[in-house]
Amino acid sequence: MPPQPARRSERSRRAILAATQELLTESGYAGLTIESIAARAGVGKQTIYRWWRGKGAVVLEAIAEHLPEATALPDTGDLRADLRGVVRATVAEFADTGASAVTRTLTVEILVDDELAGEVRDRLLRPRLEGVRARLEAARAAGQVRADAPLDQVVELVFGPVYHRWLLRTSPFTESYADALAKLVMTAVTPAGR
Amino acid sequence: MPPQPARRSERSRRAILAATQELLTESGYAGLTIESIAARAGVGKQTIYRWWRGKGAVVLEAIAEHLPEATALPDTGDLRADLRGVVRATVAEFADTGASAVTRTLTVEILVDDELAGEVRDRLLRPRLEGVRARLEAARAAGQVRADAPLDQVVELVFGPVYHRWLLRTSPFTESYADALAKLVMTAVTPAGR
């Protein structure tokens, strides 16, 4: 009995995403083409275009597939320690050459393609931003964050400076840099007198 | 007497930069070509390539020429007010469609071209970042900023969140957003007990 169409489709989809991931790792985004993905995955180009608008969209999905499941921030009860952890992890990611190349690619794509920008924001970034926001909300409920702190903006205070440093390549990413950033954010949100 | 070569060169250079600025305003970066700049400026393409490596480099110089002279931050003695002013101005710039399109262009260019990235950083951004840093240093000397605040990182705390919001198009740019950011930064740097 031949495989059912839905299962065959799913198999092709997985092969395409796996091929994309492999080619990205091997030779980066610049050399990646729909042709090379199709050849590696053993499918026709039309199969790729049936599901994705172009290279950027396939890459986005390949990356999203491989993201760690957990976007929730650990909650040890110690906001300072938890924030330091998330800032260190973010800094380490931006300092990593391979991960940085992928982020660079996606950043260029979202700057030139509005539709893809929305997908990247919603699928890759929003869960992460919301994880930090949820942790800040819990801390606020526990009296560890000022009642009037604008939490969406505090989230940007965590990620924005890292992005800025990465984008402008102004200075290196070190652990002491990460910890100093976490400390600045903590100072900005801690209620007076604590 | 024919014009001297140096003066003729300077006239061509100015014509090229003016043409670039006009074409950018009229039809944006995407449609801009070295050919269209040469035609508008009344010079040959080779004249442009003699001075610039490509489109990104000409655009960078055209923008740099038109930047306001003063990059120094006002120093009214009131750091809160001065920071609010710089954040409001930055937010207004990112909210402006025309300026935003140019920034988008330059951001793509610096992501794909290391050499241009260095020029953009040094010519367009560093003076601005250093203006804020100098203001923070004066405030620190006046006891309005914690002695141990890492000033380079405080500067990134001012600009990074705006860049992040702009890049990810997460939320609108309002004056109340700008003021809340300035307030967060102030809280992060103000010495305890003040």
Automatic annotation (TrEMBL), chains A, B:
Keywords: DNA-binding, Transcription, Transcription regulation. It comes from the Bacteria. Residues 10-70 form the HTH tetR-type domain. The keyword Protein transport does not apply. InterPro entries: Cro/C1-type_HTH, Homeodomain-like_sf, HTH-type_TetR-like_transc_reg, HTH_TetR, Tet_transcr_reg_TetR-rel_C_sf, TetR_C. Residues 33-52 bind DNA. Coiled coil: none annotated. PANTHER family: HTH-TYPE TRANSCRIPTIONAL REGULATOR RUTR, TETR-FAMILY TRANSCRIPTIONAL REGULATOR. This is TetR/AcrR family transcriptional regulator.
